[in-house]
Amino acid sequence: MKLIEVKDYNEMSQKAAEYIIEKVRNYPRINLGLATGGTPVGTYKILIEDHQKNGTSYQEVTTFNLDEYIGLSGNNPNSYRYFMNEKLFNHLDINKNNTFIPSGVAKDIQAECLRYEQLITQHGGVDLQLLGIGQNGHIGFNEPGTSFQSNTHVVDLAPSTIKANARFFDNEEEVPTKAITMGIATIMKSKEILLLVSGESKNDAMHKLWNGEVTESFPASILKNHPYVTIIADQAAVAGLKMHS
Ligand code: PGA
Known about the structure:
The structure is a single chain. The protein is an alpha/beta fold. It has a single domain, classed as Rossmann fold. 32% of the residues lie in helices and 17% in strands. It has eight helices and ten strands. A seven-stranded parallel beta sheet has the order 1-10-9-6-2-3-5. A three-stranded antiparallel beta sheet has the order 4-8-7, covered by helices on one side. Strand 9, helix 7 and strand 10 form a beta-alpha-beta unit. The longest helix has 18 residues. 2-phosphoglycolic acid (PGA) binds next to loops. Catalyzes the reversible isomerization-deamination of glucosamine 6-phosphate (GlcN6P) to form fructose 6-phosphate (Fru6P) and ammonium ion. Its EC number is 3.5.99.6.
């Protein structure tokens, strides 16, 4: 894993956006894996600004999002489909038919998991996957204890995740308790991974990732086994990190 240390959230967003823009310009037909949550919002804002100012085109880009809440349709402002439309897709020249997110309201949710996994494979896999990390080390919604062999699957959200995500809802009771997520094996199949980490609340997770062992009880630790991971982390996230290990 390569670690790029930056000053703060804004610099992280800037660096991440530059990284993605360069890839999109070099490979206009890239398959991007995208993430939701607070971490990538600044990055998406800069992608939009760049598209408007410099004309970087997403016409041929395909995207696959990591996850979606079960029970929320794309019209629900708390769904990840809605989030992605609002924060990114609506402001680019991307063809929405090429933006894929698991459906949280599919009649047969197991079939939806299989369909999503196959969809990624049929498109040749994800070239660059953007990731955040949960305070408990989750990636996507793969909570501690998830098998490293897992493909796209249904998960029960950890109480700490529900608490962390309650800030996006009116109250904690409204946060769905289940989600559909790319599995750890799905994420590991990405050719390249860009992990963004910002803020003091992620400091502990950053320490475990950098210095801890590879264990299913800390899902992000599997990234140590991936050949091509870049981490962009800010000072608050890396404070106290022993860089040598
Ligand atoms: P956050 O979530 O970006 O809202 O901190 C990251 C995650 O849970 O993966």
